[in-house]
Specification:
Strand content: 15-25%
Structural class: alpha+beta
Distance between the termini: 35 Å
Largest sheet: 6 strands, antiparallel
Number of strands: 8
Number of helices: 10
Strand order of the largest sheet: 5-4-3-8-7-6
Number of domains: 2
CATH class of the largest domain: Alpha Beta
CATH topology of the largest domain: Beta-Lactamase
Radius of gyration: 20 Å
């Protein structure tokens, strides 16, 4: 089990790295003997989970096959795709499905709307939980989990540079729980806005978040109307999972 844990640690390190890592980088980051790191990387490379890139190591092609299998078989994604299509067609805005991954979130499905976007978020991209639609997922966490998440943040700020105030953050979470959705503007990207709602399991726990996004100017005068559409879509996905 120790060898398995170490191999998974190596894969997670490479998954989160913004660039290929050298053998010495991997050994140092994971506090492993260089020989141990080399042996693990060699085994993973032989299985296609790791590949050599520009003198370093990065995620290999076999990881793509695992991701493809996840996309084809995950119940949440299968239930969410048709709902995302309907929501994008109804509102004209890009609709996305997010799940929590530790103290980050990832987009696992997306349907583009008619309204052009100035950026496209890649499927599988990790994003912070404390900004935008991420708060919808945080609203379903326990107090201890929220405290632990907060400890992982290093000087949290909005896209404008303004610090994220903990008291205001907690107020936002209470608002999400009371209203069932979150409208955020300029938190992760200046000028952009999102409306997100939780997808609930049968027991009321927060399973995922469904979101539409566009420019703040585009949605500013129809927040209530759009929030109803997003909440109905989120409820529809939840019913399909029950």
């Amino acid at each position: 089990m120790r060898s398995l844990d170490r191999a998974l640690d190596v894969l997670e390190l490479l998954d989160n790295a913004a660039r290929p890592l050298r053998l010495t980088d991997v050994a140092r980051e994971l506090a492993l003997p260089k020989a141990t790191a080399q042996r693990i990387l060699g085994t993973l490379e032989a299985r296609g989970r790791v590949e050599k890139i520009d003198g370093g190591f990065g995620t290999g092609i076999s990881s793509l096959f695992g991701a493809h299998s996840y996309m084809k078989s995950n119940r949440l994604i299968l239930a969410g795709r048709p709902v995302l299509r309907d929501l994008a067609e109804e509102t004209g805005y890009t609709a996305s499905l997010y799940v929590r991954a530790g103290y980050t979130r990832a987009v696992v499905a997306r349907v583009e709307g008619r309204v052009p976007q100035r950026y496209q978020l890649p499927i599988g991209e990790r994003l912070p939980l404390h900004l935008g639609a991420g708060k919808v997922l945080v609203a379903g966490m326990t107090t201890d989990e929220i405290d632990e998440m907060w400890q992982t943040l290093d000087d949290p700020r909005y896209a404008s540079g303004q610090p994220v105030d903990r008291d205001q953050f907690e107020h936002d979470l209470d608002d999400i729980r009371a209203r069932g959705y979150r409208y955020a503007t300029g938190e992760r990207l200046v000028g952009m806005a999102s409306i997100a709602a939780p997808i609930l399991d049968r027991d009321g726990s927060y399973r995922a978040a469904l979101q539409i996004n566009s420019t703040a100017a585009e949605v500013a005068d129809k927040i209530e109307e759009l929030s109803i559409a997003v909440r109905h879509a989120a409820d529809s996905v939840g019913r399909h999972l029950s």
